[in-house]
Design a protein that fits this description.
mainly alpha
């Protein structure tokens, strides 16, 4: 007599269930891969995947991961963790400071150009005034 509301579909005031990404430890991966290596007959590997609730593609990815680890490579990070976000935040703050510095430098350069234009116009105007007063 379970209704849809009690099965977690989110009817009424209940929040719907949200799927969680599963995370497997390195030990678990290596254990499953050891079992996969022992699978010799046709269908045994598929049965192992079903028993563990895994996809075959996941087992293949784990095999690639194991080969990389045995070759001495660093495993590629999937999604950035909290420490990676802090590094990115630091880079962003540094980039913001650099942008502010460059904007200030640009503003100063524009002000200097305005002063030069005004000085040039003033000198040109003074030169015309001197020519008029000297020719009288």
């Amino acid at each position: 007599m379970d209704t849809e509301a009690t099965q977690g579909t989110g009817l009424g005031n209940e929040a719907p269930q949200v799927a969680q990404r599963r995370r497997h430890t390195s030990g678990y991966k290596l254990e499953v891969l050891a079992q996969a290596d022992r699978c010799m007959r046709w269908g045994e590997l598929s049965a192992l995947a079903r028993r563990e609730g895994l996809y075959m593609s996941t087992i293949r990815k784990w095999k690639t991961w194991r080969e990389r680890m045995q070759a001495g490579e660093e495993p590629a990070a999937g999604r950035p963790g909290a420490e990676n976000y802090e590094v990115l935040r630091g880079r962003l703050r540094k980039a913001d400071r650099e942008i502010q510095r460059l904007r200030l430098k640009l503003k100063r350069a524009e002000l200097l150009l305005d002063v030069q234009k005004k000085a040039s116009a003033l000198l040109a105007d003074l030169g015309r005034t001197d020519e008029r007063s000297g020719s009288d």
